[in-house]
């Protein structure tokens, strides 16, 4: 099959599915190797960018999705229903970052890190579709384990959690010092 037809088939699949499609599923549908499918999609991504199209293909973990370019979002919402706008408070962002960097993680582990209850924050992040239950810990009570979702990756513009910025050991030490100073100031009050 010629490349143009393969690209058209991939585009049709991604458009119709509306959500991400695993490379393995694309390869199985096209009866091609995953490596060849990745190469075809890579060329499609480049061509979409060169042609400055209103859509783009994003890679999410081991999947691809056809999406509207973010710079055309304002025009899209004029036609479509107004999508929900979520406000991520400092508490939600802090909880989300713990899940993103420590996943899979339990509520109790999040609470130990934050030092306060996190039920509301976890429930809101699940409601917003940024985190989800990814299993259960093999421990007494079998607590839920949480991890980030594809919506999280899309929202933060990364294709994998491995692309999230890493904090240096020096920064960690600075944060510890600041926290200790804050604790001392609060105990003096």
Can you tell me about this structure?
The chain has 2 domains: 3-78, Arc Repressor Mutant, subunit A (Orthogonal Bundle), CATH 1.10.10; 90-188, Winged helix-like DNA-binding domain superfamily/Winged helix DNA-binding domain (Arc Repressor Mutant, subunit A), CATH 1.10.10.10. Helix content is 55%, strand content 13%. The protein contains 9 helices and 5 strands, in the order H-E-H-H-E-E-H-H-H-H-E-E-H-H. Helix 2 (23-30) packs across helix 3 (34-50) and helix 5 (90-102) packs across helix 7 (119-127).
Secondary structure layout:
Layout: H1 3-17, E1 21-22, H2 23-30, H3 34-50, E2 55-60, E3 63-68, H4 73-79, H5 90-102, H6 107-114, H7 119-127, E4 131-136, E5 144-148, H8 150-156, H9 169-188
Antiparallel strand pairs: 1-3, 2-3, 4-5
Short description:
With 189 residues, the protein is α+β, with helices and mostly antiparallel strands. It has nine helices and five strands, in the order αβααββααααββαα.
Question: Helical element count?
Answer: 9
pLDDT < 50 runs, ≥5 residues? none
User: First CA to last CA: what distance?
Assistant: 75 Å
- The helix-strand sequence is HEHHEEHHHHEEHH
The class by helix and strand makeup works out as alpha+beta
Oligomerization state: single chain
Keywords:
3-stranded antiparallel beta sheet, 13% strand, Arc Repressor Mutant, subunit A, alpha+beta, 189 residues, 2 domains, elongated, single chain
């Amino acid at each position: 099959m010629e490349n143009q037809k393969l690209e058209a088939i991939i585009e049709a699949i991604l458009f119709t599915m509306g959500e991400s499609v695993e490379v393995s599923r694309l390869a199985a549908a096209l009866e091609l190797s995953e490596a060849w499918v990745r190469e075809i999609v890579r060329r499609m991504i480049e061509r979409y960018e060169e042609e400055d199209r209103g859509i783009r293909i994003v890679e999410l973990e081991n999947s691809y999705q056809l999406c509207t370019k973010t710079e055309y979002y304002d025009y899209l919402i004029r036609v479509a229903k107004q999508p929900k706008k979520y406000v991520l408070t400092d508490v939600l962002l802090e909880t989300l970052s713990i899940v993103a960097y420590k996943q899979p993680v339990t509520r109790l582990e999040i609470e130990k890190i934050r030092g306060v209850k996190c039920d509301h924050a976890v429930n809101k992040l699940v409601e917003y579709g940024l985190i989800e239950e990814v299993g259960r810990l093999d421990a007494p009570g079998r607590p839920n384990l949480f991890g980030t979702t594809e919506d999280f990756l899309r929202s933060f513009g990364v294709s994998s959690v491995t692309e999230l910025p890493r904090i240096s050991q020096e920064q960690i030490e600075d944060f510890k010092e600041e926290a200790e100073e804050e604790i001392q100031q609060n105990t003096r009050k």
